[in-house]
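Example A, followed by Example B.
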Amino acid sequence: MRIAILSRNKHLYSTRRLIEVGEERGHEMHVLDPLRCYMNINAKEPEIHMRGVELPQFDAVIPRIGASVTFYGTAVLRQFEMMGTYPLNESVAISRSRDKLRSLQLLSRKGIGLPVTGFASKPSDIPDLIDMVGGAPLVIKLLEGTQGIGVVLAETRKAAESVIEAFMGLNAHFMVQEYIKEAGGADIRCFVIGDKVIAAMKRQAKPGEFRSNLHRGGSATLVKLSPAERSTAVKAAKTMGLNVAGVDLLRSNHGPLVMEVNSSPGLEGIESATDKDVATQIITFIEKNAKQHKTRTKGRG
């Protein structure tokens, strides 16, 4: 097959692994920077061009679209879908998962466990907003933040009020969540492909830090999941419409809670912690499922 990887950097670990495995399995792999792609949108023959040349037809496309280029990246992916290329993750599903508030609302509608979350726009609502999530300590998250950036743990009510007022003063969009103390600064990254969790790792925050992101100095170890954690992760990925997802769970006293569903989960941390060949399982999934015009939304939405 001819497979495109939408990635801004062909030297990133995840991109390199997918190229390596794809070529080993006899596929023609191409890395395309989504920001260098531009589109001819028409009713008869939609096209994608790059550096003055029309791109050939691809059998499948693997989106590795960074959060900072979500709007343009998903537009390019949608054009591939309209041309009949099979997307590993669809543009609509990626857009859903990138909108933190929308994704939580969709998960809550399906009855999936979540930290209690509040959202407001007026300073007068702050006292009730804090009470709504159980009071301090609580977590305040910028909706545009990634990799732990823009996430604040407010340990007192006064601190929470100050941070919320500051974010409102900057016209920043944010949400307030209950702090799951029993998680102990750890979360579980479940790597979902299709209808299975194929690998999982526990990410532990470094001492004095509550954010467990590996980019922030957290450590990763192999973890055994409970049946409830497995089913929650798979259900969360399906709710977003993602074939491949990194679902981040917190272990709470009332069961697994979904923190976030990531549509472009990195491979380095999970492969290192679990010693599993995740890249091969991704390419194998494409081999089994890729068909022309096999996109649920056909580029709509």
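Example B, a separate protein, is given below in the same form.
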Amino acid sequence: MPYLLVFTFLALVLWVSHAAVALILGILLSFLISLPDDFVTRKIGTKVLQTGIVFLGGSISIPQVASISSSYLPWVSLFVLVTFVLAIGTGKLLGVSKKQSYLLAAGTAICGGTAIAAVAPVIKAKPEELLTALSIVFILNALAVIFFPFVANWIGLTQEQFGTWVALAIHDTASVIGAASVMGDHAVEVAATLKLGRTLWIVPLVLFSAWYFREKKSTLGVPIFVLFFALAVTLNSILSPSEPISSLLKEINRICLLTGLFCIGTQIDQPAIKQISAKPLLLAVSIWALVIPISLWVV
């Protein structure tokens, strides 16, 4: 029965072909039926999205990346640093635990669940701290995918402006691409390039975390999909694939994106929501309330 509902909902997601619908139907499924933690949709969501992002790289060339990055990458770097410091400071003011604040700062400033998962073992965060941080980020990302495109249409952002805005303001790479896909292909290309540049800040973050929390051993924690994305962009620039091949790569990206967002939606259930305490949620929402208008001003 669960698998029949999954296939039915997923078919509807692919037919409608809208990122917000994919996420909402995933959340709805998790509320309709009790899915075990090891259910397939809960295990593969992030991997499917990351696979789609790699295929997206096959349709982007190095000149495109250089053109976009040269204009915005310095702002992205400054944005990451200011957001991280601001989140840590606000966490102290609100009385949020040191490690909980650190996880939320990493997720907000860099790349949501990926950064949180990379940092958690380095700082030896408690399981409940990790679960709370991930749940908060998932919920905020779900809201972003749904509402950001409406705001963009209301204020009249171009695709490049919207791609830049979501790359700065939304936490997870998957949700950034999901929101950007509603606006168009160019928005996706801009968002993917800048967001993956922001994701690379995981490397100095993990190294700093190891020193700050006096850990002697840690890995760099660079997401493997970032390396494969860079490889795909390089191959695209060298091989210059034909338009039909580029279209095929974009279609694979679209299917992976929608499927992944649907699967991630199934991770947001009632128990996860009930375990969220007020102070960490207030911290995350407060920082995000500052990040959204500031990033919009930047673009």
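On Example B: The chain has a mean pLDDT of 81.
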